[in-house]
Aminopeptidase N (Pistricoccus aurantiacus), 876 residues
Amino acid sequence: PKPTHLSDYRPPAYRATHTELTFDLDSHATRVKARLHLERHPERAQEDDLPLELKGAKLELSSIAIDGQALEPGEYQVDDKGLTVPKVPTRFHLDTEVVINPQANTALEGLYQSNGMFCTQCEAQGFRRITFYPDRPDVMATFSTTVVGDKASLPILLSNGNPVERGELPGGKHFVTWEDPFSKPSYLFALVAGDLEKVEDHFTTASGRDVTLQIWVEKQNLGKTDHAMASLKRAMRWDEETYGREYDLDLFMIVAVDDFNMGAMENKGLNIFNSAAVLTHPQTATDATFQRVEGVVAHEYFHNWSGNRVTCRDWFQLSLKEGFTVFRDQSFSADVNSAPVKRIEDVSFFRTAQFAEDAGPTAHPVRPDHYIEIGNFYTLTIYEKGAEVVRMLRHLLGWEAFRQGSDLYFSRFDGQAVTIEDFVGCMAEVSGLDLGQFMRWYSQAGTPEVDAHGEYDYANATYRLTLRQRTPATPGQPHKLPLHIPIRMGLVGTKSGEDLTLTLEGETLGRDAVIHLREEEQSFLFTEVAEAPTPSLLRGFSAPVKLYYPYERNELAFLLAEDSDGFNRWDAGQRLAMLAIDDLIAAHRNGVEKVMDVRLVDAFRSLLTTSMKDKAVLAQMLVLPSEAYIAEQQPVVDVDAIHAARTFVKQSLALALRDEFLAIYEANTSDAPYAPEPEQIGERSLKNVALGYLMAIEDEKAVELAERQFEAKHNMTDVRAALTLLTHSSRQDLADPALKAFAQKWASDPLVMDQWFTIQVTRPQPDVLDRVKFLMEHPAFSLKNPNRVRALIGAFAGQNRVNFHRLDGEGYKLLADVVIELNRLNPEIAARLVIPLTRWKRFDDTRQGLMKAELERIRQEDLSPNLYEIIEKALN
Ligand code: B3K
Ligand code: ZN
């Protein structure tokens, strides 16, 4: 397979302006008739004799005509990439009829079947598996779609836009015709047909239009849509109030589908969701799931403007819609829940997972400049780093100007397919800022590192902060240029605990300000600094960088207690814990006795005993850095030492603060009926974090509490927390009956069974590999369903570090076997699943050898372009 390059972009020779489709649905042989109204692209009007080239994959062509005239065999060519017609008029319509096989489609791209229901996934390049088409985002057309299906088995027939006609047909069939008046690229096309039921609601837009809202599910899931519907309405209101964006059609539909590669898809007027990202019920979904559903529903809805009304010119611009939309959904969740908790959760995930991506063989810029398979680029860098870049723009401009820039972007480019330059250009235009250097954030991969160093001059009452930046080399980018890095900061008076006023070059900036690092090295001299300060840097994680400052432990304990920025209080706690963990990792390696850092115990004791308003923030502060995060900080990852050190810290804290954790647990058990509200969620997470510490030492009381919590069945959050702790403990006498009871109760709910799989395969004990193999044979498991694969194999490889990285290589082998199998079934999922193996360079020689051997074994296979691209990057 050959790469596609951004620099090769040209407008298409022909574009479609209106597209008429008729689907005659059948599991094995669906007939798709297409009439494309095509015309020469104005920018290519001068070129002679341009052939018509349409994309197409796995299509069986049964007829083709231009302006009603059937083409002779010599007048066109079809190969496995598509259709070419050498001679065509400048404006014409093309009729084709193709046959496709939805049943055989295990890749879940294009038209496929899930539990008998027909559905589509077209982003990025799935539409070419439906019909021959200029399948690229800069071709935007209005669509008219007729869906024909068996009336008994497919009573519901849906597509984008509004239903305009329906009727009966011979042979027990019926049809519905849908019209979408908004021009859209093919990747936003959707079709759903099945035996579905709906929940309906209404929303009145700011300008007073009534929008019908529908969530379509299989009958047994009818009781699980309330939260998604409420989230949708909140998101619609929020987008009106925050960005001035109103919904544009009269109908907005969401459909829940069980077999789905991603979380959800923003098809115009017909969002298709992985059922895991839409269905909730207090008895089956955890708080985390409730919050994820709220976030994903909002994300897909927000795409209606950031993605659909204004879309991407080409797939290199993917972050234009994804980065901006993630930023929008993060802001929404922060506004409707607890803002500091949302930020802590997002950053904690980002610094673990995106930093790892940026440091590995698949590192790429927010705007890549080439790809083999675009399906491999739906990454944390495009999504989450892209969102951080938008967040920096928001900080640089301030909210008012940022909103003006956003308004300008939506009005100027409505109905168009545009680039990242167009977006940033609007921001520069409204603010007058020079964002030239800032654009490097889009083109340079890798995580910038900033070294900070500070000096207080008592005699002159000045503080000099020196910052130095560097971005490490990444594949294909050996040399990096300095970035424009906004650093939000404060100077906290070490005596007063107050933020001191910041005066920089005679200008008073306030007590919390953003300084701009643009050079490789830059000094900032603050004057009139009344007392010796402790710097609080990168507040709120104002830039996606690693910030190093040689903090002493007492300084971190001080910031943990005093920093006015909640995020940096949390971060100080994480840094303090990291120092303790580092010592213990060294002790473990050197075989010397492990000694717990009393300063960490003291810091935790004050956290546990001073009452804090936001319990969810407190819960976050009590969570130790994860093994994955700790691994990110090490030059060579020592899996076992990390596990041992972290476990030791957890147990030591539990031993020293048992009564305090117990008191926290007891103070946060309420019998109030379940609600996914911030306050309750905060209480539950605090309680369960406390129980986690108590179970780390497995004292009798803790075990009793866990058992009781499991049996009370109050809600899935508490049940799952208890079951996880029991399963991960040494008390298999308790875990086994609990797991059994749980499986019996939930055997027919696949999303709950996914949790059951994950809980078991993340067990740290060494017997787990056999359990993984055993569970792969379980009737509730299937390699064909991406949720099952993620819950079992993905969770094992991604979350069970000690066992995945077993020294006998059996963990790696198991993953490679699954990847090889999935390469045939579902290339997109295979290419995602293999990622942990690609990070082999981070480990010791023995593990490196074992991991590489498995990658080489995979390479022997007949690989899909998806896996080919990832494996080549990993082995080069
Ligand atoms: N835009 C979709 C991505 C689907 C791509 C699958 N290959 C989900 C989202 O970001 O909203
Ligand atoms: Zn998205």
Observations:
- The chain has a mean pLDDT of 98.
- Residues 123-124, 261-262, 264-266, 299-300, 303, 322, 375, 378 surround (3S)-3,7-diaminoheptanoic acid (ligand 1) (CB under 6 Å).
